[in-house]
Amino acid sequence: MNRNIGIVYRKELRDLLRDRRTIMSMIVVPVIVMPLLVTALIMTSAKLTNKVREESPKVMIIGGEDSTQTVAALRTLSNITWVPASADFTNLISDKKINAAIGLPANFDAAIHAGEDPTVKVYTYEGEFKSMNAWQNLNWFFQSRRDKIVGDRLTEKNLSPSVLKPFEVVNTNVASPTKVSGNVIGMILPYLLIIMCMTGAIYPSIDLTAGEKERGTMETILCSPVARSHLVVGKGLVVLTVSLATACLALTSNGTAVILIKHLLGGAARGNDFPLVVEPSSLLAILVMMVPLAIFFSATMLALGLYSRSAKEANSYLQPLLIFTIMPAAAAALPGMELNYKLALVPILNVSLAGREIMTGALHWHYIALVFISMCIYAAAAVAVAVALFKREDVLFRT
Amino acid sequence: MIEARQLTKLFRDKKRGEIRAVDGVSFRCEPGKIFGLLGANGAGKTTCLRVLATILRPSAGTATVGGYDVTTQPEKVRSSIGFLSTGTALYGRLTAREVVEYFGRLHGLEEGLLRTRLDQIFAALGMNEFRDGRCDKLSTGMKQKVSIARTLIHDPPVMIFDEPTHGLDVLASRAVVKFIRECRDRGKTVIFSTHVMSEMEKLCDTIGIIHHGRLMAEGTLAQLRERYACADLEDVFVRVVEETP
Hints:
The complex is a heterodimer.
Chain A: H1 3-17, H2 20-54, E1 58-62, H3 68-75, E2 81-83, H4 89-94, E3 100-103, H5 108-113, E4 121-123, H6 129-156, H7 177-207, H8 210-215, H9 218-222, H10 228-265, H11 280-307, H12 311-331, H13 349-360, H14 365-390, H15 393-396
Parallel strand pairs in A: 1-2, 1-3
Antiparallel strand pairs in A: 3-4
Chain B: E1 2-13, E2 17-29, E3 34-38, H1 45-52, E4 60-65, E5 68-69, H2 74-80, E6 81-85, H3 96-106, H4 111-124, H5 140-152, E7 158-162, H6 170-185, E8 189-194, H7 197-203, E9 206-211, E10 214-219, H8 221-228, H9 233-243
Helix pairs in contact in B: 3-4, 3-5, 5-6, 8-9
């Protein structure tokens, strides 16, 4: 490496690391604040969910005066608080004063005995947690009751209950825990790394270009003997370092947070038995795929930062870039989105899709190689643009 | 030595069209002498000095600085100059020592020589008290000393000063003026721009009056007074500007 590139790199990195804003955007936010917030949010949400589940929903029975059997059976449900009937039950549910109401039709028990087909209505508040909890309990009750009545009727006619259930269907997973977790983690992990690479590059790229213009140090460095191409490469390497460091630190801290949450919740949360297995070789492969993407981000942002008159203007160019990054990165998780020759050439989306393939272990090396090579070409083009802009006086002195 | 030959710099502006910021400027500045560029704001002084410092490329003509051509050997030119202007700020998050070391290394100084020169310059400029202080915490005068140390660390044969006293108080300005004189006394080629007449009169061996990008008059202070029959430089300057078509 050219001596001057190394000198510029060391100086810029030292300068940047002394800035509180870099420490905030590179370490404090992704490594401490975000995992703490996510952990706190999930823990609080799990606790509240459990608490609400433990609370008995308030339910009202409308009608049923002539259906004592059903009403008596309902009242045996221990996890429901029964409240006296009221004609205003719909408003009471909407105002969350009660959680559900059961509308039993007239002569319900008699209609069942007569073999008719009466309808029970359960009134709920769609989407309201306690109301949905009440609905689950009541639905389970009425389904069990219906099965029992069907069983009794079949027995009366000397028929086995298997008449209605000639065979069983059992879902059996054959994928290894690595593949099961890889399928889900493969959608989240590349997305997280891409976004962190991008956000990690924003602040340093602005500080080292538009920030220098504002502080008046651009002219100082331009009158030194360092070649402009070396200057931009030195600065670009700093942005790349911060970008990759942000992604790696975020990966470590979020991984730790997930393990911590699993440990703290124990068996309390639904889906907590999900296997969390990540192959180190897959992780390494994804990080390697991230390098040309991070170079692409760093050079693009450095070029935009340099073109800007001020840090404020640079921010206005770079913030919308986040949307153009999030959309393709997240699109990889859409159903049916698979890596092919065309998508392997779409920047950002290709890395996200390749990352998913690597995590699931369904490796199509020709596609992955194409993704890597195309990203290297995009990165080289972005670096060439950044170097060309650093040589343009109208850009350097655009104030 | 600095020699400018028909030096021209054009800018293109969307509203104003082509602007001739420097228009066929020729002059010569010898070692051990100070050449002063005198002009109003926007006359073309800064652009001219930026071209000489190879921060900008000339549109036509050329110049040699320290024996190197500004168009074909810009990096060698930058190794031969010390450039100080109001636009050359310091890195606020680095210490005075780190800033000077950074530029010393970029100029290719070996670590041993860098240490020696740094100690000499810091002692000479009285900077040891704040050598490890961050530049954003230093006073204006201290910052100016750090800038001077930055321009001197590689001991360049040519010094280019673009309005170096602009915005400084009297004491800091005097220190800069003293430093420019010392550069001349050590045999360096010095070019200096200002619109402050008293500084021109005190410092410069040769004065060039620049207006609308063109060098309208050149000579010693005595020659200019005689040519324009004026007692002081300010009157000379006004005459030159008024005579410009």
